[in-house]
């Protein structure tokens, strides 16, 4: 199994196109395919903050649901958009407002189509992926070794939000424990969620959210090659979004 695991895209369609081309994919029937039968894996947070969230939903739906040429797991932003589409009273901030603005600009029939597609995409997705043939686990914000195989509420919170403590920094960010320092598994855990300037490898864990929507880069991790491939962001750099402490 040959994988290209793609970090948090957050509506950055141009950068995703650039990344796919760099990885050797080509467009066929409106989706990206690879002549070597490689499988793209989206590790969540495909929407919010960036300019093209609706187009990302359409593309990922086509690749994952229609053509079954890719895999997808949800991130915390995906969870929030899903709850919004269900009609829940969700606060439209931290990026959701950009996706909602795009959505509301659509015609009623287009809105219905997008809502149905994203709900289907989300509900069909596993909480995280265990891929024995690639000897890896893909989880949006990571996963403890002892959680692998579980999908209860405690694990769901960890996978979507990270190892949160319940406390907050002065700027509103949740305080998180550095779970990767304690992971001793032999399988790769590939995750994103927390923006880093460079892919962060600790043991057999790698964070590939290189903050594309914050102006840095969009990154893929290739297996079995264990190769990192990044393309530069077209968004303005927001230096304050990158944090270098273990939190």
UniProtKB/TrEMBL annotation:
Pfam families assigned to the protein according to its UniProt record, in alphabetical order: Metallophos
Domain of life: Bacteria
CDD domains to which the protein is assigned, alphabetical: MPP_Prp_like
Residue ranges of domain Calcineurin-like phosphoesterase in the record: 1-196
Gene3D superfamilies xref list: 3.60.21.10
InterPro entries: Ap4A_hydrolase, Calcineurin-like_PHP, Metallo-depent_PP-like, MPP_PrpE-like, Ser/Thr-sp_prot-phosphatase
Protein name per the record: Bis(5'-nucleosyl)-tetraphosphatase PrpE
Source species: Virgibacillus siamensis
């Amino acid at each position: 199994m040959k994988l290209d695991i793609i970090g948090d895209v957050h509506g950055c369609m141009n950068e995703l196109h650039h990344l796919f081309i760099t990885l050797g994919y080509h467009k066929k029937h409106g989706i990206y395919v690879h002549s070597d039968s490689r499988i793209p894996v989206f590790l969540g947070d495909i929407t919010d903050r960036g300019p093209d969230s609706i187009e990302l939903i359409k593309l990922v739906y086509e690749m994952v649901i229609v053509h079954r040429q890719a895999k997808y797991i949800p991130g915390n932003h995906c969870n929030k958009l899903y709850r919004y589409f269900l009609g829940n009273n969700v606060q439209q901030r931290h990026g959701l407002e950009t996706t909602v603005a795009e959505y509301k600009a659509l015609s009623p029939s287009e809105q219905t189509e997008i809502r149905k597609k994203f709900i289907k995409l989300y509900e069909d997705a596993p909480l995280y992926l265990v891929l024995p043939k690639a000897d890896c686990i893909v989880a949006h914000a990571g996963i403890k070794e002892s959680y692998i195989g579980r999908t209860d509420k405690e694990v769901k919170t960890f996978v979507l939000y990270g190892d949160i403590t319940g406390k907050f920094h002065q700027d509103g960010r949740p305080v998180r424990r550095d779970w990767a320092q304690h992971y001793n598994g032999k399988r790769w855990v590939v995750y994103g969620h927390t923006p880093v300037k460079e892919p962060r490898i600790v043991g057999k864990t790698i964070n590939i959210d290189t903050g594309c929507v914050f102006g840095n880069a969009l990154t893929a991790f290739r297996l079995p090659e264990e190769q990192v491939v990044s393309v530069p962001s077209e968004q303005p750099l927001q230096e304050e979004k990158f944090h270098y402490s273990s939190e």
